[in-house]
Amino acid sequence: MQPSALSLSRPRLTLLFVLALSVALSVLLVAGRVVLSGRWHFVFMLWNLFLALVPYGLSTLLGLARGRLRARLLLPVGAIWLLFFPNAPYIITDLFHLDTRPDVPLWYDLALIMSCAWNGLMLAYASLSDMQQLVQRRLGFGAGWAFATLALMLSSFGIYLGRYLRFNSWYVVTNPLTLFYDIVDRFVHPFAYPRTWGVTVVFGVFLLVGYATIRALGRAQKEDL
């Protein structure tokens, strides 16, 4: 039996430690803002961070599964992962909330939002890398990258649904008909929704280039050692 791609090796533990520190910084910045302002304005960012942690937790647990258990879990857990995955890169759009406010300096809010956005991106990329490895082990290198590309483009479409139509992952259960209608309508009449496809393509390419850069940096460092 081959070892799990996500065994708790020293690099894996180091990654978990660094991600935990980074998320802790975001939490401290949010808490600091509450103390400084006496308001709860950016506390919703903590919920967004939690949602960003869900796909990373799912991909980590899936990778730790062995043999037949992993094979049985791959499709159902993978489907849930894909449903929640857009929540991680979605945090970058919280930059829309940046504005001058009298209670806290603008630079502080910028640092807070950027910290959360960074964590969303890193959690998304770490989670996607785990899932890509699982697909690549079964179907090959090309299939792994095709999966990663499709996941990022779908997540960009999910970003549009969340930011502009105010849908979230729970709508699949709580309001599936409305969600289904709005999605199908945009595919049936694509030219009627230029913003939908503008956001999807631009953010998709941005996320894909960023992901490829992170992967290339990691590979280059391994080869240089």
Automatic annotation (TrEMBL):
The keyword Cell membrane belongs to this UniProt entry's keyword annotation: no
Transmembrane segments: 42-64, 73-92, 104-127, 139-161, 197-217
Keyword Transmembrane: yes
InterPro entries tied to this protein: DUF1361 (IPR009793)
Domain of life: Bacteria
Keywords: Membrane, Transmembrane, Transmembrane helix
Name by which UniProt lists this protein: DUF1361 domain-containing protein
Organism: Hymenobacter aranciens
